[in-house]
Amino acid sequence: MQILIDNAKVVLPTRVIENGWLLIEDGSIQAFGTEAMRPRIRATVINAAAGFLLPGLIDLHCDTIERLVEPRPGVRFPLSLALQQADFSLAANGITMEFHAVSLDDDEFSVRSDVFVRELCRVVAETRPSLLLRHKVHARLELSSQRGYSAIMELIAQGVLDLVSLMDHSPGQGQYPTEAAYREYVSRTTGRSHTEIDAFLHIKKKQIAAIPERIKGIAQLALQHGLAIATHDDDTASKVEQWPQLGIKISEFPTTMEAAQRAHKLGLAVCMGAPNVLRGKSSGGNLSALTAIKAGVTTMLCSDYYPAAMLGAVFTLVEQDIISLPEAVRLVTLHPAQAVGLATNFGSLEVGKVADVLLVKPGASGVPVVERVFVGGKEVLRRSVV
Q: In this predicted structure, which of 45-54, 69-78, 272-281 has the lowest mean pLDDT?
């Protein structure tokens, strides 16, 4: 089956074709060009009405699935229901490949445990044929968790993970510069008592000595299985400098410009949060994504905790004249695909690549709206922009 989308602004990796067209056949992109080159073929023709044609967004990190399962402390819903809800919401926001970022911890924060990660792997595998988009599992290990470490080693060996990342949220590391900051955050977000927080701190302090060997073990096994490895909340240049020799290639949410610059210089893909772009600042008072983008040290953006921010960040960066549209689109498509080794088939509108394609138009309020979504050449979502 052939689908021809014409009268579109076709956003390629380095340029935009005004009044262009794109041809999809058998699930892949067959051709594109200007109106003067429009083929005369029998095909289903879609008039884009001057909308933007973009590659499907690739989100390497989003923990929304945790909140869909437990929207309030102690209130839980079936994971299969949450995944179905996430599937539709993500597609509506233009995300065609989602890496669900779920944590292997000791139940410190709600559902963040090996039990939940194992269940997500199972549910994704069982329901994948009925879902609209491409769902993958990004397992985040809290390095102070012995149980989490054992689980992630098993899951890597089983081949059920698509990305792994390493986190150390002990007080004095990255996100929590002091023990007081750690206590305040855990109390505010989980409602845990002082006694419960004391217990978690005790565990973390006991496990500190084991962290270096855990990092080496995970990195070695992940590389053997062809998995990309990320780190989380790097805060110093010295911390970043150890990663390349371990095969770690992604630095997520560096908290300081020093760490971001060093990661970029060493060739790591630096990932910042799209909500940080939309808000103009970090929710935790860390490095501003806008500042990092202007400094040229940001490789890609992820939704982090707010899927709608991905597409919004693209057009915000263009409207503020910070970078061009092709550059902004690469932050959420081609660069994430490259970071996890999927760029041969995904991440850009190029001949031969899989036809994960979006038609986007400005909404009445100026917010970009996804009108049509194609995954593997199949239209999975359609709505009208009034």
A: 69-78
Q: What is the CATH number of domain 2-54+348-382?
A: 2.30.40.10
CA 97 – CA 93 distance, rounded (Å)? 11
Both ends of the chain: CA-CA distance in Å? Answer: 29
Separation between Cα atoms, residue 1 and residue 383, nearest integer Å? 22
Within this chain, domains 2-54+348-382 and 57-339 share the same CATH topology = no
Local confidence band at 206 (pLDDT 50, 70, 90 cut-offs): low
User: Could you confirm whether domain 57-339 is CATH 3.40.50.12230?
Assistant: no
Domain ranges for the chain: 2-54+348-382, 57-339
**Residue 103 and residue 111: Cα distance in Å, rounded?**
8
The SS3 of residue 315 is helix
**Mean pLDDT score, 72-81:** 92
Rounded CA gap, 302 and 58, in Å?
8
In tens, the pLDDT along 324-352 reads 999 999 999 999 999 999 999 999 999 99
Instruction: Select from 70, 149, 57, 60 the least CA-distant residue to 103.
Output: 149
By C-alpha distance, which of 166, 171, 239, 173 is closest to 202? 171
| Structure-block tokens of residue 273 | 């949060």
Distance CA 319, CA 313 (A): 10
Provide the β-strand partners of residue 370.
Answer: 360
Could you count the other beta carbons within 10 Å of the beta carbon of residue 165?
24
Structure tokens at 180: 């007081």
Distance CA 188, CA 41 (A): 60
* Residue 47, helix vs strand vs coil: strand
Whether the Cβ atoms of residue 332 and residue 308 lie closer than 8 Å to each other:
no
Is the pLDDT at 188 greater than 70? The verdict is: no
pTM: 0.92
Q: Determine how β-strand 95-104 pairs with β-strand 57-62.
A: parallel
Tokens in use for 274? Answer: 């799209």
